[in-house]
């Protein structure tokens, strides 16, 4: 849905990637399908594509503040669910952060080229 709503921007970025980093574009398209064939995923959620806090700033509540701000924006737009994907292996601290933030594991899947991932989801509290 996000790609459909921002198709022109997505195409322009894709054209830039074709010229500057063609392998990155191939990687991007192969990872558009983030699903598990054994799970029904209707895609009715906003998707957080990336969030990060510098190692030197972790533990100061910045990640929590970023999530609260994002969720507030999504709720104001009527969004009911927020989803994200994160690595399955060697990622305990991030998975724990997401769980503390109210996310649950929806399913796991294999991303290109052979990277096991979690899709996590959170029901937003609409006012």
What is this structure's SSE topology?
Layout: H1 2-5, H2 7-20, H3 22-30, E1 46-48, H4 62-76, E2 81-87, H5 92-100, E3 104-111, E4 115-123
Parallel strand pairs: 1-2
Antiparallel strand pairs: 2-4, 3-4
Helix pairs in contact: 2-3
In percent terms, what proportion of residues is strand? 15-25%
Quaternary structure classification: single chain
Helices and strands, in N-to-C order?
HHHEHEHEE
Computed over alpha carbons, the radius of gyration is 16 Å
Largest sheet: 4 strands, mixed
Give the strand line-up of the largest sheet. 1-2-4-3
Shape: globular
Q: Average pLDDT value?
A: 86
Unreliable segments of 5+ consecutive residues: none
Task: Quote the distance from N terminus to C terminus.
Answer: 24 Å
Share of residues in helices: 40-55%
- Give the beta-strand count: 4
Summarize the structure in words.
The two termini are about 25 Å apart. Helix content is about 40%, strand content about 20%. The relative contact order is 0.16. Helix 2 crosses helix 3. The protein has a 4-stranded mixed β-sheet, with helices on one face. The protein has helices spanning about 1-5, 5-20, 20-30, 60-75, 90-100; strands spanning about 45-50, 80-85, 105-110, 115-125. The protein is globular. The longest helix is centred in the middle third of the chain and has 15 residues, at about 60-75. By secondary structure, the protein is an alpha+beta fold.
